[in-house]
Design brief:
The chain starts with 15 loop residues before the first strand and ends with a strand. It has 2 domains: about 130 residues, Medium-chain alcohol dehydrogenases, catalytic domain (Quinone Oxidoreductase, Chain A, domain 1, Alpha-Beta Complex); about 140 residues, NAD(P)-binding Rossmann-like Domain (Rossmann fold). The chain has about 325 residues and is an alpha/beta fold. The strands form 2 sheets. Strands 1, 2, 3, 4, 5, 12 and 13 form a 7-stranded mixed β-sheet that branches.
Length: about 325
């Protein structure tokens, strides 16, 4: 159960930043953490909010990279989270905020665009001229993947639930969008690709969507497993990718923070250039005050949101 509570101000330990939160974007992992269903289970009680932006107000011992007044974004150190006025970040993991973006856009930038960039480029090797199929195109990771696919020179097909979400995908640059509530995307994708299928499939949904995606992955295609918002894992029998010559590629972006942080730093540098060139811009559908955070999480869990919903503790 989520409730507002007054807690003592956190103090930054060695290597940490104390940040005054100006925006915290809501993500599906927040929902799963609150339900106790996420792979990371912080000890109770904890504050949700896995990504935030804000202003540094104090630094811990040994921190030289950032100082008070700097605008940063990052994933907070548990059990502190973004749905708070103050939170702690690891200075090593924090990144400079994007100067062209508002606080709300910076709040919704880290996870979705890093996941999209690392997934599409490092893991799936998306090339200009290829066809990218983005599932859940109107959601946070989907809207980012559409923009990143177009920036890479790909032809982008998106799936989304309902006419309004389809329209949003097209507005964000998708070359085609399919309403999966009215149309089976399998024949639609085959028709749009002349029967060839998609070279890269970006799947944050899993379950039945993953199963159907196996029918529309192209020769030497890459099916990118990003998440399981459907609540069901996808299944593949290994003779199928052997016969069709495609790859199923996993993406757990958070592992790069421990295994290869230089990948995140390099991706952020490239993303800053794309933002400066106007090729990417987080779509924020709503900004809500801290007291409305639990209700906003409920809407996210029931798929009633588009893009990013951002909690603003400063409001």
């Amino acid at each position: 159960m989520l409730r507002l509570a007054e807690l003592p101000d956190p103090s930054p330990g060695p290597g940490q930043l104390l940040v005054r939160v100006t925006g915290a974007a809501l993500n599906f992992p927040d929902v799963l953490m609150c339900r106790g269903q996420y792979q990371v289970k912080p000890p109770l009680p904890f504050t949700p909010g896995v990504e935030l932006t804000g202003e540094v107000v104090a630094v811990g011992a040994g921190v030289t990279r950032f100082g008070p007044g700097d605008a940063v974004l990052g994933a907070p150190v548990a059990p502190t989270g973004g749905l708070a006025e103050l939170a702690l970040l690891s200075a090593a993991d924090a990144l400079p905020a994007v100067p062209q973006f508002t606080a709300a856009q910076n709040a919704g930038f880290l996870l979705t665009y890093q996941t999209g960039h690392v997934g599409l480029h490092r893991r799936a090797g998306l090339r200009a001229g290829e066809t990218l199929l983005v599932h859940g195109g109107a959601g946070g990771v989907g809207t980012a993947a559409i923009q990143l696919g177009k920036a890479a020179g790909a032809r982008v097909i998106a799936t989304a639930g309902g006419p309004a979400k389809v329209a949003l995908c097209l507005e964000l640059g998708a070359d085609a969008a399919i309403d999966y509530t009215a149309t089976d995307f399998v024949p639609a994708v085959k028709e749009l690709t002349g029967g060839r299928g998609a070279d890269v499939i970006y799947d944050p949904v899993g379950g039945e969507v993953f199963a159907k995606s196996l029918k529309v992955v192209a020769f030497e295609g890459r099916l990118l497993v990003v998440g399981f918002t459907s609540g069901t894992f996808g299944q593949v029998v290994t003779n199928h990718p052997l016969v069709k010559n495609y790859s199923v590629v996993g993406l757990h972006w958070g592992l790069y923070r421990q295994q290869a942080p230089e990948v995140i730093t390099a991706a952020h540098a490239d993303l800053l250039k794309l933002a400066a060139d106007g090729l990417i811009s987080p779509y924020v559908s709503a900004e809500v005050p801290l007291a409305e955070g639990p209700a906003a999480l409920d809407r996210l869990a029931s798929r009633q949101t588009t893009g990013k919903v951002v909690v603003r503790p400063d409001r």
